[in-house]
Amino acid sequence: MRGLKGNRSVSRTLSWTTGPGVSRHAKLRLPVNNLVKRAMGLVKDRITIDPNICNGKPTIRGLRITVETVLGYLSAGDSAEEILEQYPQLEPEDIKASLEFAAGLAAHNFNVSKPY
After folding, report:
1. Which of 2, 27, 31, 69 counts the highest number of beta carbons within 10 A?
2. 68: left (phi over 0), alpha (psi -120 to 50) or beta
3. Is the pTM for the entire model greater than 0.70?
């Protein structure tokens, strides 16, 4: 986990609708170190985080292919084989590691502050 020092956290704003024309927003603060360490425990050798590569986004083995890119293709309906054809430097284990990384993040308990 190169590049993550101190007790940093990220803040994200979540938005959702509760009915026709009714939107809600909430700020979500995530402790980066604990959250990423937990997710990284699953995929130590495949996912790297370096502030000098892709602005610190999780990448596949430092290749400048982000986990977000792989997950985006999968969520759009592309198969692992199609992704591997488009990115020949990837290996099947990289796609599995991306899914495991996302699952590790989703398994985290989130504290949402008061909606504004």
Report:
1. 69
2. alpha
3. no
